[in-house]
Amino acid sequence: MKKNPARTRRRMPLLLFFLLVTLGLSLWLGFQAVGAARSHRITAEGVLRDYAEIAVSEYSRRVQGNLDRFFREVFRDVPRQVRSGVPPDPGVVSRNIAGALRRVSCECSRFRASVVSIMQDFGSGQVVSVPDSVSFGEKSRAAGISRAAWEAAPAERIALRTVGASQGLSEPSVLFFNASLDRTGEEGAGRAIYVLQASLDSSSELFDSWYRRGALLPEAVVGGQPNDSLLHLAVSTGDGIPVFLSPIHTPDVVVVSDTLSREYGGLIIEVGVRPDAASTLVIGGLPRARLPLLLALMVMTVGVGIAAFIQIRKEEELAQVRDDFISGVSHEFRTPLTHIRMFTELLADGKLRTDEERFRSTEVINREARRLTHLVENILHFSRMGRAPRSRGAAERILVEEAIGDLTEAFDPLVRSKGCELEIVVSPPTLEVSASRSGLHRMLANLLDNALKYGPEGQRIRIAAGGGEGWVRISVEDQGPGIPAGERSRIWDPYHRLERDMEGQVRGSGIGLSVVAELAEASGGAALVEEGRDGGARFVIRLPMPEDGMNDPVGRIPPEGGTGVRS
């Protein structure tokens, strides 16, 4: 069923409207999906942040509780009062280290610590007695560190402090302090300061054991999974010096931190939730970023829209071409049919009285019938183009002069009716070509018909042929307006017609030259167009010579003024 081109054009705005609506709806749905995914992600991150806050709060509670127990156990034998001027014995602290580690459930094989005691007058700030074995700085610096630690926890007289190499130590360390009053008990009097020193590397074993002791999140949520599979934990000093890092580190979704009080050294605890833990902690997991998918869908939608628009445009152009083709073919059919009908009616009505009039009428009918046959054969051949594999057909040796003679005989009535003159030049006269006889006749007929159609009345049409180097060149040259250089490659396309011809009175189907090009290529040759001698167009077909023999290689298309003129 054929489509109505006018209906197609009427549907064009409606199709474009629905296309734009579909595109807009797709974009809106895409943005809605991204918005929903973003909202889901924000909610999920909020839930993960809550879990991270639970974990950091639980771990902070553990650290503070275990440090308190460690302090009390390790400093439990420190006397409340000491005799002024008598250096305290550090052994009361060092002998309790192993028991303190057991108290805080730490099987710490790497934990090493040293204990020193100093005497200091807090009133004057002077160090009264510092043993030679003190390792956390010179006397004045040691006095400042111990006084600051004392002031950090005046109630308990227990404190923790981290110090680094900038404060005189060979490596960053954790210092645990405890103090005893002298016997006077007066405020600002001397103190005995007990200092337990452990390196940060050694102390990290404490924090690691407390991290692994149990789940930091509710058991109902984690289902027995270890902390490392869900969380990542870091403990550092206020100066940013790492004290402990959990073994597994990945870019975290959310990170929550907590800072302990001064009596616990101002340690900073950070807990992050691992991305792969989101599916365990949040129903449905953390939604992935949908932006790449949305962009891909948008590009695909736009691509489909553009392809649909191009297809619609092509359909509209094809409808226009179909209109022009049908109009051109109808016009070409109408003219000979009108002549045939008119002269047939004159003959039937007996209105032609003389034999000469009747002869002219039959001659017109014969001429127009030949023209109709030529048009029908062109259309039939064009309809077969592209549907069957291209082949050379039944190639045979054809005498070029004979083929041109058959052509001019068939077109003689039409040539005489236009008042045109044919100039036939074949050199050498024995020139032969290898081609299909019907195909060669169709090519020459289309070129001659084209010259008669677009050239002026009374023109001279030159048909020339020559050969050499295995090829035969046959040209048909008219004295018409010629072909613009920019259009010479496009005139061989099906349905293509020059703009000037579209607006002029000369009508055509637009398939004649495309049939010539297709037949020339099927014969192993080519078709081209050149500028003629008088500004017209010279159409050339280039075909192979017979394979079993070569014609005279010096044979060429003679210059103008050659022999063989017919009128």
**Helix/sheet category:** alpha+beta
Radius of gyration: 53 Å
Number of helices: 13
Low-confidence stretches: 549-567
- What portion of residues belong to β-strands? 15-25%
Largest sheet data: 6 strands, mixed
**Distance between the first and last residues' Cα:** 48 Å
Q: Approximately how much helix is present in the residues?
A: 40-55%
Average residue pLDDT: 75
Shape: rod-shaped
**How many β-strands, per DSSP?**
18
Q: What's a quick, concise take on this entry?
A:
By secondary structure, the protein is an alpha+beta fold.
Question: What does this molecule look like?
Answer:
This protein has 567 residues and is α+β, with helices and mostly antiparallel strands. Helix content is 45%, strand content 19%. It has helices at residues 5-74, 91-94, 97-103, 139-152, 200-212, 219-222, 278-281, 291-349, 355-384, 400-417, 437-454, 499-503, 512-522, and strands at residues 81-82, 114-121, 126-129, 158-163, 173-182, 190-199, 231-236, 242-245, 255-259, 268-273, 396-399, 421-427, 432-435, 460-468, 471-477, 526-531, 537-544, 565-566. Strands 1, 2, 3, 4, 5 and 6 form a six-stranded mixed sheet that branches. A hairpin with a 5-residue loop joins strand 16 (526-531) and strand 17. Helix 1 crosses helix 3 (97-103). The protein is rod-shaped, with a radius of gyration of 53 Å. It starts with a helix and ends with a strand.
